[in-house]
Amino acid sequence: MNIHIICIGKLKEDYWTNAIKEYSKRLSKYCTLLISELKEEKSPDNPSQAEELAIKEAEGRRILKQIKKDSYVIALEIQGKQLTSEELSEKIQELGVSGKSDISFIIGGSIGLSQEVLSRADFRLSFSKMTFPHQMMRVVLLEQIYRSFKIIKKESYHK
């Protein structure tokens, strides 16, 4: 299975990059992982609605260029559906069984995702109704994908 994480912004802090490296290494046993970090638009301190829309659209165009035509797209979005770890593993397994071998997970920038990206998504996933830094969500997402593969393979995982 091919997992593509498409995200806005680059990780700057070592603790995030080290966590990403660790989960990438762990995931290499289960899938081919690609992480695409895309340019984050500069935002004024108090952007207007028009400025926010322009930022989302510019970032959205970059995101859409990264998505393969046949990829199943899961957008991380606060209004999306919340799943347990077991339900996410079932979703990933069902996609694989149904012949969907490319899954793209989308993490937007600090302002969120454009309507075009949300329209392209096959599924909208929420980890919580709370807002998290997008850098942190990358680590949380990779951990949950790793946990999903451990569940699918019926391998133990620390609790």
TrEMBL record:
GO terms for molecular function: rRNA (pseudouridine-N3-)-methyltransferase activity. Its main location: cytoplasm. Keywords: Cytoplasm, Methyltransferase, rRNA processing, S-adenosyl-L-methionine, Transferase. It comes from the Bacteria. Transmembrane segments: none annotated. Pfam families: SPOUT_MTase. It is found in: Cytoplasm. It catalyses: pseudouridine(1915) in 23S rRNA + S-adenosyl-L-methionine = N(3)-methylpseudouridine(1915) in 23S rRNA + S-adenosyl-L-homocysteine + H(+). S-adenosyl-L-methionine binds at L76, G108, F127, S128, K129, M130, T131, F132. Its EC number is 2.1.1.177. Specifically methylates the pseudouridine at position 1915 (m3Psi1915) in 23S rRNA. Homodimer. This is Ribosomal RNA large subunit methyltransferase H. The lineage of its organism: Bacteria, Bacillati, Bacillota, Clostridia, Peptostreptococcales.
